[in-house]
Amino acid sequence: MSSQPNQSLIDGIRCFQELASSDVPLGNAELAERLGINVVKANRLLMTLKSIGLAEQGSHKKYRPGPAIQLLAAQSFHGSHLYKQALSVLAQHQYPDRIVAMGVLWNDSVVYMYHASPGQAMHEALGGYRLYHATQSSIGQLFLADREDEALGALVEPLKPEEQERLLDNIRQIREQGISILFDTEKQSFNIAMKVTIDGSEAGLAFSDLMLNRAELDDAISQLHELARQIERNH
């Protein structure tokens, strides 16, 4: 029996992921281009997803997630101890001066499970934020630090030299300290992130848009540590 990964299954999952993360319906050609596959294969994958309710076609014959995505969403929430434990803690913490986020790395992008701006309602914070490239995210860089240097090479290649240097400096700092601390020069604010682990599953927990001086930043780091501990202890 072959132990090789099933490429057709992988392509089908990638196809569904692309549909689920797109803000607009996608046609065969658009999806094929995004996935780097031919149009015939893209059409076959979309028709298969449609046959099991994971995709549907709108008036312009383009595809969007189908009704079965609601079932998957409910099952995913039920099956994720990390998600349930984290949300019950995060629901009790509202911050007037920062964004609170929790996310995981998918390929080269951060998928936010929770992303709450000051004053934002809980239901708006759940899965309602776009994918974010890992190199531009404190959570993303936190997980990129786990990769080998060779694997980072292709990721940083499109960046400008000064951006490459800044990213690699951040990666070195994360490996040494176990926490991601980024300074946004445009907003003049800090973004900090650390890992939360529950039953072997990892996510990144972050505070962002912190308009603080260095002494105040140390307090925010302590608060993030405490929030992470509360989530991990919440059995």
From TrEMBL:
Domain HTH iclR-type residues, every copy: 6-67
InterPro entries the UniProt entry points to: GAF-like_dom_sf, HTH_MetabolicPath_Reg, Tscrpt_reg_IclR_N, WH-like_DNA-bd_sf, WH_DNA-bd_sf
Gene3D superfamilies the UniProt entry points to: 3.30.450.40, Winged helix-like DNA-binding domain superfamily/Winged helix DNA-binding domain (1.10.10.10)
Superkingdom assignment: Bacteria
A GO term, aspect molecular function: DNA-binding transcription factor activity
Entries under PROSITE patterns matching the protein: HTH_ICLR
GO BP term, example: negative regulation of DNA-templated transcription
Keywords, alphabetical: Transcription, Transcription regulation
Coiled-coil ranges per UniProt: none
PANTHER family per UniProt: HELIX-TURN-HELIX TRANSCRIPTIONAL REGULATOR, ICLR FAMILY, TRANSCRIPTIONAL REGULATOR
Entry protein name: HTH iclR-type domain-containing protein
Organism: Parendozoicomonas haliclonae
